[in-house]
Amino acid sequence: MQKVGTYRLSFGLMALALVLSCLLNISSGSVNIPFADMWSILFGGTSEMDSWQYIIWEYRIPKALTAILVGGGLSLSGLLMQTLFRNPLAGPFVLGISSGASLGAALLLMGASLLTGMGTFSVLGNISMALAASIGSFLVLSVVMLVAQRVKDTMALLIIGLMFGSITSAIVSVLAYFSNAEQLQRFIFWSFGSVGNLHPNQIWLLGLIVLVGVVLSMISLKPLNAYLLGEHYAQSLGVSLKKSRLIIIVATGLLAGGITAFAGPIAFVGLAVPHLTRQIFDTMEHKILIPAVFLYGAILMLLCDMIAQLPNSANILPINAITALVGAPVVIWLLVRKRKMIF
Amino acid sequence: MDYQFSHTISIGGLSIGYGKTKIAQNINFSLESGSLCAIVGINGIGKSTLLRTIGGFQPKLSGFIQVLGHDLESQQPEQLAKELSVVLTEPPASKNLTVQELIALGRQPYTNWMGKLTETDKNQISESLNAFLLTDLRDRKCHELSDGQLQRVLIARAMAQDTPVILLDEPTTHLDLYHKVQILKMLRELAHERKKTIIFTTHEIELAIQLCDRMLLLDGSENPFGDPCKLIEEKHFEHLFPADMVQFDPKTGSFRVNK
Fold this sequence. Notes:
The complex is a heterodimer. By secondary structure, chain A is mainly α. Chain A contains 15 helices and no strands. Chain A has one domain: ABC transporter involved in vitamin B12 uptake, BtuC. Chain A has helices at residues 8-27, 35-42, 50-84, 97-111, 113-116, 123-150, 154-178, 181-192, 200-219, 221-227, 231-236, 241-263, 269-280, 286-308, 319-336. In chain B, helix 4 runs antiparallel to helix 5 and helix 5 (147-160) runs parallel beside helix 6 (177-193). The longest helix of chain B is centred in the C-terminal third of the chain and has 17 residues, at 177-193. Chain B has 2 domains: 1-81 and 163-259, Rossmann fold (3-Layer(aba) Sandwich); 84-162, no CATH class. In chain B, the strands form 3 sheets. Chain B has a 6-stranded mixed beta sheet with strand order 6-7-8-3-9-10, with helices on both faces. Helix content of chain B is 29%, strand content 26%. The interface between A and B is medium-sized, with 27 and 38 residues.
């Protein structure tokens, strides 16, 4: 538990990988900008084309920042859920938390537009979107938590999460049926997931949400570690179960809900990254896992986004599809090599 | 360690159970530091419920439980964690922890918000590793351990928590005779040498008679408590089980099957 030092090298390499993937992410996109020009633009110089400067500063850097926040935050929420439920297969998507966020978002985009009339994305609209998605995910998370206390079985919990996912998507379909084409289109584009096109204000808000999530996780370091022994042991170690559980749920709901609000429901990152991280950092100590999982998630998201951009082509694939293509095989691989799934 | 009060734990008129169902009542005993006490009784009589109640995991129905002279319910969880540690029947939720990591978790009540281990913490951890013959296994993952080794790890964790009172729920189940005796002798040593009060539930009545300083016999009525020899003299073991199957032999301190 005290061996933070032994992981220093790994952390160094991860940080390096983050910088590299960040540069790669910024360098790639529909417009081909040579690496040398990108470099000089980044350090305040000039480039061959003025539009390149605009593309990099106004589009690609915000997008890279969003990818870091989204990937890191989602992965962290996955880690928190796996520890809270002491279940290696827990994650925002599997437990229906993302569906809860979708429901909140759908209600806002398709249901409540009559009430507020928020056709354009104002800051208030952003906050209400984040709020609606967070509340949606809190609700599902709380219900899953309640059920989890009655059903101790790992598989049962996952099936229940799946059912919640089905229920929420059913409600979403009903909403979709009654909404007009424009609302429906907005919802569908949102549900593809995207880390681009965020207004600086939205990025600030997202950053704030992720920061709060990280801070709440950091103050829960000891309870999180104690939960590894089980709830009774945690209690006997002086952990206040009610308080710590609430903090962890709020952190998870904020991370999963807030991110889903801005970037859409992004699959598998939350579930897969904690396991991938444990392949490098062979420890259960959250002091190490929290930053490591965040870094790993950020790197993975930057790379997924890069693939989604289809370098040098004008097409952008839905990022949700890319993460599922990357994440689902990882989960299968982990399940087949069952030993590594020991939580 | 010296306490200004003679009893580390005292219990009087205690009734335990869940809600309206009373499982056992009229439980009275107190223990000093440095004593090993076994709770025995037939299945379903409430041994584990009693232990969980003393551990603060479920509320008592009536009576009092005092730990180091204070009522159990009045204690803050952080304070209680320095007075009372537990070893439960449930395995640790994560078996991916190493032996050392798991034992280090016992130091949580003493560490700062980040869980940073001081020299005192590290010494306590290596002492616990030594006392339970785990030093060579320190970097093993828990899923690689045998039942007996895992049980020793869990007890070592309780020792690292350095509390005057340690509660253990059936620490010897799933172990062979050799490892049962090993665990009980280690507990006895821990109680005597480090002046701990150790209470455990068990079905190993014959071993408990030989190794414990005190025993609590849950029999559903009087619940006698005291020195094992005295309990034998007063013929309390005869009533522990229905007489149709087994009979207690006071001379050897063991049970005989009625053929």
